[in-house]
């Protein structure tokens, strides 16, 4: 299948999808502000941040079953952006915690409908090295969006007594997504049946990719969540220092996204092993590091590693499944990634009960390191990317 000609504006619209994919994180810096405003809801405040991830899972599955089949990519992107925009901004107009959670669920649904579009479009429109380069750039825009949106959320949350309300206006940036969605290209229509006339099934490797990203996020997300606590325990700095370290984690992801295409070209067969090994090395530095510089360096290596193996997973997806199933495959992978983040909360609570509230973080890091190292070793010998002969 030949590549469809895509303009610069078309490509910019695709990258916008990645940029706004982190919209739910705008409120992350405002958790303390919400606690102050709704002190009687303290034990439920975290749901403002985590509830959308559950609805992202639902949204991604819906998107996978309809995009490019029952509805055009462009139409779905416009609808999803509007849904996310409404759900994101609405809590700024009232002071009700329960209704805020409802709106956060609506935001998550819209974000979930948007989530698989970028990867599906790149895999459907591009091939080979160009596809790899753009998947890397997509990761770059996703991480850059995360940095900018969280900074915006922090600024809005710190504007005074109305900070808890103003932070929701940060979602107004989704207006850009609504406008840019008008310029999204449509990939060539794929045959949905094989030569035998039967509907083409999704490649079996997709379930392995989905499982790997689910387990990775399950183990990695709570480590990031507890990083400020670890910094305080080691007298390496307070929450502000930990937040800076986590921001540098994202910056490292931006750098990885920028150079991913080059790394993929040089070390294609070992790209997944390299990414996973870097994540494991980063967690190892965090485990043994007793100072802020060492722990921050570890987090940056983890960020670089994740943004190396994740676009590699997307490239693997494009190879492993028929074009007609790319949309559903992308949705399944992203749904499992977000599900891993949601299930991370009970996993975090379980480790806390087993090891104690003061001692559970280091065993958590060990588990993450072991998983990353084992996966890295396995993919040295079982890589889906073969060298050209």
Automatic annotation (TrEMBL):
Bilayer topology: Multi-pass membrane protein
InterPro entries, sorted: MFS, MFS_dom, MFS_trans_sf, MFS_Transporters
Keywords: Cell membrane, Membrane, Transmembrane, Transmembrane helix, Transport
GO molecular function: transmembrane transporter activity
Membrane spanning stretches: 12-32, 44-64, 76-94, 106-126, 138-160, 166-184, 205-225, 240-263, 270-288, 294-314, 326-348, 360-382
Protein location: Cell membrane
Signal peptide: none
Gene Ontology CC: plasma membrane
PANTHER family, sorted: INTEGRAL MEMBRANE TRANSPORT PROTEIN, RESISTANCE PROTEIN MDTM, PUTATIVE-RELATED-RELATED
Protein name, UniProt field: MFS transporter
Source organism of this protein record: Bilifractor porci
């Amino acid at each position: 299948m030949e590549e469809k000609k895509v303009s610069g504006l078309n490509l910019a619209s695709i990258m916008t999808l990645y940029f706004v994919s982190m919209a739910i994180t705008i409120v992350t810096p405002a958790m303390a502000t919400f606690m102050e405003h709704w002190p009687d809801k303290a034990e439920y405040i975290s749901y403002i941040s985590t509830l959308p991830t559950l609805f992202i899972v639902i949204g991604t599955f819906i998107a996978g079953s309809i995009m490019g089949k029952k509805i055009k990519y462009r139409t779905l992107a416009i609808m999803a952006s509007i849904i996310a925009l409404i759900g994101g901004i609405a809590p700024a107009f009232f002071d009700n915690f329960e209704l805020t959670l409802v709106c956060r669920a609506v935001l998550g649904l819209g974000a979930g409908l948007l989530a698989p579009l970028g990867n599906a479009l790149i895999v459907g429109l591009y091939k080979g090295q160009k596809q790899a380069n753009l998947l890397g750039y997509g990761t770059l825009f996703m991480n850059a969006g995360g940095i900018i949106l969280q900074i915006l959320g922090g600024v809005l949350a710190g504007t005074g007594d109305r900070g808890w309300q103003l932070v929701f206006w940060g979602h107004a940036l989704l207006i850009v997504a609504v406008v840019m969605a008008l310029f999204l290209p449509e990939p060539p229509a794929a045959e949905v049946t094989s030569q035998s006339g039967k509907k083409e099934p999704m490649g079996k490797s997709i379930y392995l990719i989905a499982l790997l990203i689910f387990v990775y996020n399950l183990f990695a997300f709570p480590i990031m969540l507890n990083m400020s606590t670890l910094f305080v325990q080691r007298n390496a700095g307070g929450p502000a220092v930990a937040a800076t370290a986590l921001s540098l984690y994202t910056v490292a992801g931006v750098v990885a996204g920028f150079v991913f295409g080059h790394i993929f070209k040089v070390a294609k067969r070992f790209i997944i092993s390299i990414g996973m090994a870097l994540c494991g090395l980063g967690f190892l530095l965090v485990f043994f590091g007793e100072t802020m510089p060492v722990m921050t360096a570890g987090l940056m290596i983890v960020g670089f590693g994740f943004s190396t193996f994740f676009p590699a997973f997307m490239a693997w997806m494009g190879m492993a499944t028929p074009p007609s199933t790319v949309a559903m495959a992308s949705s399944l992978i992203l749904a499992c990634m977000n599900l891993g983040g949601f299930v991370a909360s009970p996993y975090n609570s379980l480790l806390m009960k087993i090891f104690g509230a003061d001692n559970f973080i280091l065993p958590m890091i060990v588990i993450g390191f072991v998983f990353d190292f084992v996966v890295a070793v396995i993919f040295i010998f079982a890589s889906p990317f073969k060298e050209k002969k």
